[in-house]
Amino acid sequence: MSDDLISLNLGENHLRFAKAKNEGGRINIEVLSQQLGTPTFYESETKKVSDETIATIRKNVDLLKLRKKRVNIIIPDGFAYSQIIYMPKLKEKELLSAIRYQADQFIPMPIDETSLDLEILNESKTENKSLVLIIAAPQKLIERIESLSEQVGLYPESIENELSATGRFLENFYSPLSKTESTIFINVGYSYTSFYYFDHAMKLIIDSHSFPAGLAVFLREAQVDVNIDLAKAKDLLKKVGFTEGTSVDLNQILQPAVDALTVELQKFIVSLKTKYPTAAISRIYVFNLANEINHLDKKIAKNVSIPTVTYDPASIIKRTPAVEPYIKELPSFIAPLGGCLR
Hints:
It contains 10 helices and 13 strands. The protein is of the alpha/beta class. The chain has one domain: Nucleotidyltransferase, domain 5 (2-Layer Sandwich). This is SHS2 domain-containing protein.
């Protein structure tokens, strides 16, 4: 981990910057910043959107005085393909060659149009196998992101997805009391949601699942049923959400959206129990844009009968001046903070 490395979370509708380091199990943050309502970079490849995105990033880079810094860029899970699998214990170059040779089994896109990377998460001491995270993204998207970075005066050192960055954060900072149980982390994005299965004994994310539904679905339900604009829908979700006994009851309105999430979660839990028969899921955490839906954690807990809360890293973060403006938004910074730990 280099002292001049910064992390940029290039989200669907936001930018988040972070510069931080692990100091004895606590996070010392030098830079923390976010801008919401950014251009639709992933939806459109037009020059207009690219120029707007460059201008937005440049404005933030100049404000934070981050020019000529090396950057690790984090993209949403929904725009990369990830798989965690066991493979024979080989060197990284040999693993990459093996994956490329069998690309059609791992990657749902032509290999010559794909940017491929892997990370060895764990090597078994008793068996000749490694737990490997495979990440693939369209080469065209990676080239666009590298170009953006260079045009604003940043040097792109790496590009990863939220799963990879979040996994690194949890490996460093999540310390469950029991080693015999496991946790599910729910990363609510804008148009995608991801489930991460964290094994306490291995201290790793060892399984994951993403599906195309996120905060946007909840916003759409609120807009249509309450007949309000997007800004008011965002405000209503954040202040009311699944709170009961309020003047505006969103529970019924948001039911289809939370039902879809619950169905996917239940299917994920069933698949985990099939793969890992001794799995004991003791807790579920929600984070990222789950912070924008009040009491979503309580609704999930009620639906799946597993204790669920928002994952807030405030207790392990040093209260520096950079942190104070975002103290209530820290659950949204898990991935960019993890991106600082490369």
